[in-house]
Known about the structure:
The structure is a single chain. By secondary structure, this protein is an alpha+beta fold. It folds into two domains: 49-229, D-amino Acid Aminotransferase, Chain A, domain 1 (2-Layer Sandwich); 232-338, CATH 2.40.50.140. The protein has five helices and 16 strands. It has helices at residues 95-102, 126-133, 165-175, 193-202, 276-287, and strands at residues 49-50, 60-64, 69-75, 80-84, 109-116, 146-155, 158-159, 183-185, 207-212, 225-229, 232-243, 251-260, 263-270, 304-305, 311-316, 329-334. Strands 3, 4, 5, 6, 7 and 8 form a six-stranded mixed β-sheet that branches. Strands 11, 12, 13, 14, 15 and 16 form a six-stranded antiparallel β-sheet that branches. It has a four-stranded mixed β-sheet with strand order 1-10-9-2, covered by helices on one side. The protein starts with 48 loop residues before the first strand and ends in a 12-residue tail after the last strand.
Amino acid sequence: MTKRPRKPSRPLLTDDAPVQSRRIRRRDPRQPELAFDPMPDRIEPCLAKLVSQPPAGDDWSYEIKWDGYRLAIHFETNRIRILTRGGHDWTHRFPSIVAAAQEMLPLSAILDGEAVVLDNQGRSDFGMLQNSLGGRGGKKPAGAAILYAFDLLYLDGHDLTGVECSSRRKLLEGMLTDDEGAIRFSHEIEADPETFLKAACQHGLEGIIAKHRDRPYRSGRTGDWLKIKCVESDAFVVVGYEPSTTDRGAVGSLVLAALRGSDYVHVGSVGTGFTRAVARELKQTLDLLKTRTPAIRLPGKQLVLTSPTLIAEIEYRGWTNDGSLRHASYKGLRDRQDNADIYRLA
């Protein structure tokens, strides 16, 4: 008796069906090599732990620390999704990255990287990125932004988070060969880590990142990735301002606070790093946030205290003995959707 012909199997990826976000069926134990891992809706990012010195040894790789917004790029069957570190959809805010990603379809993948805007010397500049997006809460698309991709978490039906870092990066490097496009590979720098850090600082970069070559991709701050900064830079809450003495429509300085437990603690002020136009914009925004129940109380100066809503990225050179930031300089406002880590005091 002649057997009826079998129906052709459906390809894993088609132009008319999105990649599933859950397991469709159990894997066949008779064919374990035919693995198919549904693409997850989101993967909690691996975060770098701050250390004072780079680790040494062949187990570690080193790359530039980019100063921008951490993003995950989801290449799905018929669309591109861009998610922030906190899981918010910012696809509409990075049209140049979306356009570059669409040229790579029907690839099915998740890339981990940092969106940046480069200055005329090729350095990432957080302030320029924020301005291109229209400032905090802005709705403008960042047409000048590019993505430096540094990890590959999923590829064509395979979950790569359990694969060692060195293998993930080799796969990623093979995918990204255009060093001039809107999606670029964040290259490993083969150099003595101390020499690399010194050179990064001399060229005005934020610092370097060290990654353990043999570790899987683990969400959270596990110590598999380390960051070593040239200059300290952290996120602090703006809890008020001191008016400018030379321009009535501008702020003279911002009053900053960090968290200790669930309480806000004053850590000083910042009066440099912003232009006159930015100082005026900050005053307009903060005047809408005035409050009679401030997060902190400071006697003395003529301060306008506001609700702890704005989060500012501040560059500084350490701490004074009384717990204030030394040589603080304003870099820009962080969007809460970026899930910025507010600095926590011990």
